[in-house]
Amino acid sequence: MFSLNNDWDRSFAELREQMTQLLEEFGADRSSPSLVGWGKTWPRLNLADSGDVLMVTAEVPGLSEKDVNVSIEHGVLSIAGERRIQPPEGYSVHRQERDSFKFVRSVAMPCEVQADEATATVRNGLLTVTLPKVPEAQPKRIEVRTS
Predict the structure, then answer these.
(1) Taking a C-beta distance cutoff of 8 angstroms, is the pair 43, 79 a contact?
(2) CA geometry: angle at 52 spanning 120 and 143, to 5°?
(3) d(CA 27, CA 143)
(4) pLDDT, tens digit (0-9, with 9 covering 90-100), for 91-102
(5) Quick check: 109 and 54 in contact, CB under 8 A?
């Protein structure tokens, strides 16, 4: 019976070690913006095409326009940001579940855009980037005639 308990303890120790290693591999570190989203790209975004304009929307909860940087270079849109969590002046921290973090997300555009005409706004935790397409990339209507 004694050896059964030792084997059981050894099995749990190995399991605990494997779980720790697994959590480390999947980004359970303090620089991760969300432990709930292990293995997922952050911030989550959508890319929509209206024909003459591309619109990218990205979730950036808790960030303001001062916390987010948007750039486009060689057809790649980059969104970078940082959230800093500091206690109010005169307060000390007793529990901190919301951490500071930095992020960068880059997305290749499906066509050429007019970078100098692009706009970006943050409202209610949603970043919206509007990128007008160059005239050559906009859809052309082809008239159909009878022969």
Answers:
(1) yes
(2) 175
(3) 54
(4) 998 888 888 888
(5) yes
Residue where the block lists tokens 């973090």: 101
- The CA-atom distances, in angstroms, between 62 and each of 23, 38, 83, 105 are 26, 19, 8, 17
Amino acid, single-letter form, for residue 18: Q
How is domain 33-137 classified at the CATH fold level? Immunoglobulin-like (2.60.40)
pTM of the model: 0.67
Q: Which amino acid, 78?
A: S
Cβ–Cβ < 8 Å for 75, 110: no
Q: Residue 36's pLDDT is what? A: 46
Helix ranges (H only) for the chain are 2-25
Each residue's pLDDT tens digit, 30-42: 444 544 444 457 8
Domain spans of the chain?
A: 1-30, 33-137
**Strand-pair category, 45-49 with 53-59:** antiparallel
Burial class (CB in 10 A: 0-12, 13-18, 19+), 79: buried
